[in-house]
Please model this.
Amino acid sequence: MSTVKANNHQVGQSATPSQNLTWYQPTTPDGTVRLGVGNSGATTSDVITASSSGITVPSLSASNTFGFKNRLINGGMTIDQRNAGASGTSNSYTVDRWAYYGTQASKGTWGQNLNSVTTIIGFPNYLGFQSSSAYSVTASDTFALYQGFEGYNLADLGFGTSSAKTITLSFYVYSSLTGTFGGSFKNYAGTRSYPFSYSVGSANTWIFISITIPGDTSGTWVGATNSGAAYVNFGLGQGSTYSGTAGTWAAADYRSATGATSVVGTSGATFYITGVQLEVGSQATSFDFRSIGQELALCQRYYEKSCSIGTAPSDGLAVGANGVYGGGAITAFGSTNARTPTFTFQAAKRAAPTITFYRSSVTTANGQWGYYTTSAWASSTNTTVTDNGQGTYGFSIDMAGSFSATASYLMSGIWAASAEL
Model:
């Protein structure tokens, strides 16, 4: 039953004061109204405050609630532009923004949805690794899955100052092994690092992990620039050179915690992660699900291709199939050279990218684009980015061949642009 007080309005059961919803009378000149749960002695952190300047809800006004909450890109492992789901073994980017590195070759296989294990509701994709041998790491060995951060995306953390903010890393992990695993958060120069450890108590089961990392008040950290600022590493096997005490900052390039389980140490061992999030604050909150368009655009700042999202760029792709670019025109500016119009990127790049060219199925010279003469397709003898014709928003191409000056020709080919850290 509702009750009314002289100064407060309480709604709800009257069994205990803590069950009451209370309007507190204005106590400030501007007529601020406070709504909270409990007695009139509740503190401002317990209440919703409405005043002439707006409405404040403590839990909703936290610094990690709106905008770019998850500082990691593609934490759900959804976007895989380079490989389109194919696996690999080399030191390379895997799914977008995530890479694999190992000091020894051929020690495992990585890939999106590797081995097709049962996924978690809400996370249909994951990044996987499977060891190919029982390798005993040496002191200088390091094996890891990692993502690098651009300076603009972490500048507000204030690392390297007395105002450094606490951050929290959370993720789901699934492994055929049990035990204590490790990783690290470190600056890009490798002069400051925070090794962390976490426990996998059950094999072949998705487990949620949350790790709180105090802000680093020491060292040099890259600020608001497009340069690399930091890495998050998930260790797959680390030698003593790259292993340090978990839970403390160190002036060293540690990539995992001392004593962590070595995935590469067991033949056939598997390690999968998804739902990876790095956010400001001392606790993990719900995963920052972004639309597929947003996530793709964030990835395209670092890598973009002319194929559809489900097609990996390569030589010999069929013109017109799978979204492969196969149209447009070039104009000859001499008997041996022609130039394309500007290709505009879908997303502005972090920096002027490296452009890689691939032939389409209508020509035979790998890495060279084709052009159509009066009766057949011909391969350019040299396909290059135009001098001064490339920037963060697009590029144009020069093609060498046999042309009629000022004539226009159909062109065919595929491109990929990389501006990774």
